[in-house]
Amino acid sequence: MTHGRAFRFLHASDLLLDQPLASPLGVPPTLRRRLAEAPYRSASAVFAAAINERVDFVVLSGGLLHLAQAAPSEVCFLIEEFNRLHQHGIPVYWAGSVHDGPASLAAHYRLPANVTHLPISQAEVPPGSGLVAPAGSAVRAPLHTYLVQKDGEPLARIAGVSRLPHQGLNDLSFHLPRYPSPFTIGLLHVRLDERVDHLGDLAGVDYWALGGRMTADESPRGSSLAPVRFAGTPVGRTLEHVTQHGCTLVEVDQHGVRTRSIATASVAWHLERVEVNLGDTLEMIEKRVLNRCRQILAPPAAPIDRIVTWRLYGPHAVLHRARVQGWDVQLTERLQQSHGMATPALWSRAVELQPAVSVSLDDYPTDSLMAEFLRTARDVQRTEAEKLDLQPYADEAAASLPADVSQLDRSRNTVPLLTDAALLGAEYLHGKEVC
Amino acid sequence: MRVTDLWIDRFGDWTSVDLRDLALGLNVVYFPDAATKTALVHFVPSVLYGFSESVRQRFINGADDHELVAGGTVTVELPQGRYRVTRHDRGRLGGELTVKNFDGELCPPNTLQNLLHQVDRNTYRETYVFPVRDFDGLGRLQGADLYARFARYGAIAEPQALADARAGLARLRREAWKVLPRGVAEHQALCRKLRDEIQTLAANQRREETDLLRQQPELQSTLNKLKEEENRLKADIEAITRQIAELEKQPVPEPAPVQPAQPQNDLQRRLAALQAKLDRWNRLLKRIQAKRSRLRAQITECAVDEALWRDSQHAVWFARQSESFHRLEQRATELHRRVAELVEQSETQGRVRTQQLLSLEPLAAALRGELHEISSELRQYESRAYRHDVLVANERKLKEVQARLARQIRKATHRKHRLLCRCNASHLVLDGELTVATPKSQIDTARSDKAAAARAEELARLRRELEELRHKLIQTESRRHSTQNQLDAIARRLNVLRSDKTIVEKRAELAAAEAAWEEATARWQRAAAASHLLQATAARYNRSRNPELLTAASEYLRSLTSGRLTQVRARLVEGGLEVESPGQRWLPLGSLDSLDRKTLLFCLRLAAVGQQVQRGIHLPLLVDDVLGQFDSATCIAAARLLVTLSKRGYQILYFTCRQEIAELFEDLQVPSRSVCWRGERLGLSAINGYDASDDGWTEAVPASVPLQRTAKAHTLTVVSSDEPPAAEPSRPLIPQPRFRTVSDVTFTRTKATAPYLAALSCPVTEIPSMDSESARLLGEHGIRRIVDLLAAEAAELEQRLAHPALRASRLNEWQVEATLACRIPHITRRDLMLLIACGIESPEELASFTPDALLGRLEARTRQHSGLAKELDYARSRVPNWIAWARQARPLPNTLEHCLVTGPHYTRLESGSRSDGLARPSKSRTGTAAVAAEHTATVALATQVETPPETTAGWRFHLSMNSPVEEAPSIGHKTARRLSVLGVYSVADLLDADPDEIASRLGRKWINGNTVREWQAQAALVCRVPMLHGHDAQLLVSAGYKEPEQFAHMSPRQLLNELQPLINSPQGARILRGSNPPDLAEVSNWIAWAQHARSLRVA
Question: What is the DSSP string of B118-173?
Answer without folding.
Answer: T--HHHHHHHHEE-HHHHTTGGG--HHHHHHHHHTTSTTHHHHHHHHHHHHHHHHH
